[in-house]
Write a structure and sequence with these properties.
The protein is built from one helix and two strands. It is α+β, with helices and mostly antiparallel strands and 72 residues long. The longest helix has 17 residues, at 40-56. It is globular, with a radius of gyration of 14 Å.
Length: 72
Amino acid sequence: MRFATGVSFHPHPVFGVWLHEGTRYEDQSARMVVDVEDTPEDRQFFVEFKVVLLERFEQLEIYIVSYPIDVL
């Protein structure tokens, strides 16, 4: 990722409940929005960065969601 064109952070945690292998978990998650160009290089950056985040925060899963935005 060369650089982000915009970054936003949602200051209020998102509460979630989920199951993994029969165990119930409750989390408070942070939500961050990063605007980047839709390039194979940027997508690969996030694929690799997810591995770093999973280890750093000792998580079973981290969702990174991607979708196109049309700026009008």
